[in-house]
């Protein structure tokens, strides 16, 4: 049996707490299959090395079969200049590894309908969607800076740029995913205002010609934000630009009960991807041992499936999470049933028992 190397970035805030939970689960479903290489990045790297991401950290990620990340960032580093902030580590890894496709599934666990903040009849219908977020373009990577105008007024700018190649490749990922699911793709943009969105829409429709079986629709992002709350069941796969996907996926996460439930996979055209929860370092609960570990645990399931075709192991993890929730165990963020909330470790213990 092959042995894989996994670069592990615990990160900041709740990062170490949730990553240790996920590793316990991984060791149980795939004992001895993974060698862990700890990587320091984000705030911790700033404290130790003075920069958020070192060449050595990048090299370790590149030389591994996959990367598992908790989260980076926190108030301690919030006043540093942009290029020295912890979040730059994340942007750097995404770019260096070519992780252009961010897959963010959002489904309502049937047993968590009571934790969904939507109208009861909307929650009752449930939903199961995947947001495909472009991850290495748009205003996250466009030209940015500050300058003074002739009157001495300070100007700050961040440029939203997309080229045809970037749009085509993310569109293909989304169409391929839709083909394996409900055969519906909604492309979300702001084509009524942004030129980059108009190119986005043109290219998505061009790529659509190769996928005649997929029902493609376009939606403006402001409407999409509203439709998610009105009727999330209408969505199967959604594809959108970097910043729109960031915002809409946090919105979708809360519809499932908590951001502490949503996993993600960041993929390139090679096997090595990065797997992480969509949430951040949650400084408000860091160190308290109460973070929900499920998002990170199911990110590991995504990794097993996407990177290593270990589908059976991935399913075991997902089923163990399902059963644990069905048995009524809850962390504080998804408390819908009046039980005493479990902490991170106790919840992980319950999931391990189901494996
Ligand atoms: P956040 O996602 O960290 O937290 C938002 C809210 O959700 C908080 O109330 C938090 O307690 C709660 N929450 C998040 N994860 C949870 C979990 N697993 N269980 C229970 N509750 C959870 O977003 P934020 O507060 O805007 O950002 C905090 C820091 O994290 C910032 O520095 C931000 O840049 C960074 N961040 C990092 C990543 C990443 O590394 N991938 C992602 C998002 C934000
Ligand atoms: C995410 C985060 C990051 C993003 C930040 C921390 C740079 O919010 O992964 O969703 O905006 O992509
Ligand atoms: Mn985000």
TrEMBL record:
Keywords: Amino-acid biosynthesis, Branched-chain amino acid biosynthesis, Cytoplasm, Leucine biosynthesis, Magnesium, Manganese, Metal-binding, NAD, Oxidoreductase. The record marks 140, 190 as: Important for catalysis. Mg(2+) binds at residues 222, 246, 250. Pathway: Amino-acid biosynthesis; L-leucine biosynthesis; L-leucine from 3-methyl-2-oxobutanoate: step 3/4. It is found in: Cytoplasm. It is an enzyme of class 1 (oxidoreductase). GO terms for molecular function: 3-isopropylmalate dehydrogenase activity; magnesium ion binding; NAD binding. It comes from the Bacteria. Its cofactor is Mn(2+); Mg(2+). One of its GO terms (biological process) is L-leucine biosynthetic process. Its EC number is 1.1.1.85. Substrate binds at residues 94, 104, 133, 222. NAD(+) binds at residues 74-87, 280-292. It catalyses: (2R,3S)-3-isopropylmalate + NAD(+) = 4-methyl-2-oxopentanoate + CO2 + NADH. GO terms for cellular component: cytosol. Gene3D superfamilies: Isopropylmalate Dehydrogenase. Binds 1 Mg(2+) or Mn(2+) ion per subunit. It holds the Pfam family Iso_dh. Residues 5-351 form the Isopropylmalate dehydrogenase-like domain. Catalyzes the oxidation of 3-carboxy-2-hydroxy-4-methylpentanoate (3-isopropylmalate) to 3-carboxy-4-methyl-2-oxopentanoate. The product decarboxylates to 4-methyl-2 oxopentanoate. Belongs to the isocitrate and isopropylmalate dehydrogenases family. LeuB type 1 subfamily. Homodimer. HAMAP family: LeuB_type1 (MF_01033). This is 3-isopropylmalate dehydrogenase.
């Amino acid at each position: 049996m092959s042995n894989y190397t996994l670069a592990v970035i615990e990160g900041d805030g709740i990062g170490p707490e949730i990553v240790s939970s996920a590793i316990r689960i991984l060791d149980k479903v795939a004992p001895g299959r993974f060698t862990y290489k700890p990587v320091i990045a984000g705030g911790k790297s700033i404290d130790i090395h003075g920069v958020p991401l070192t060449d050595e950290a990048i090299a370790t990620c590149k030389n591994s079969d996959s990367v598992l990340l908790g989260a980076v960032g926190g108030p301690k580093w919030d006043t540093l200049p942009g290029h020295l902030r912890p979040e730059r580590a994340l942007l750097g890894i995404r770019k260096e590894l070519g992780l252009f496709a961010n897959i963010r599934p959002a489904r309502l666990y049937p047993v968590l309908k009571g934790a969904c903040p939507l109208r009861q009849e909307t929650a009752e219908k449930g939903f199961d969607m995947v947001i495909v977020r472009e991850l290495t373009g748009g205003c996250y990577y466009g030209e940015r800076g500050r300058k003074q105008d002739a009157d001495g007024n300070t100007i700050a700018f961040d440029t939203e740029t997309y080229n045809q190649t970037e749009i085509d490749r993310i569109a293909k990922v989304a169409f391929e995913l839709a083909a394996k699911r409900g055969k519906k793709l909604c492309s979300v943009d702001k084509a009524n205002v942004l030129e980059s969105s108009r190119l986005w829409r043109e290219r998505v429709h061009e790529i659509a010609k190769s996928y005649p079986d997929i029902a493609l629709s376009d939606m403006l992002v402001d409407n999409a934000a509203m439709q998610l709350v009105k009727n999330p069941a209408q969505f199967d796969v959604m594809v959108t630009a970097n910043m729109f996907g960031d915002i809409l996926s946090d919105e979708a996460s809360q519809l499932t009960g908590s951001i502490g439930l949503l996993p993600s996979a960041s993929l390139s055209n090679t096997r090595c991807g990065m797997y992480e929860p969509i949430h951040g370092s949650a400084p408000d609960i860091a160190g308290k041992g109460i973070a929900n570990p499920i998002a990170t645990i199911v990110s590991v399931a995504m990794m097993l499936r996407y990177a290593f075709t270990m589908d059976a192991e991935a399913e075991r993890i997902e089923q163990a999470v399902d059963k644990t929730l069905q048995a009524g165990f809850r962390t504080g963020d998804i408390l819908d049933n009046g039980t005493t909330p479990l902490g991170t470790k106790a919840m992980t213990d319950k999931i391990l028992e189901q494996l």
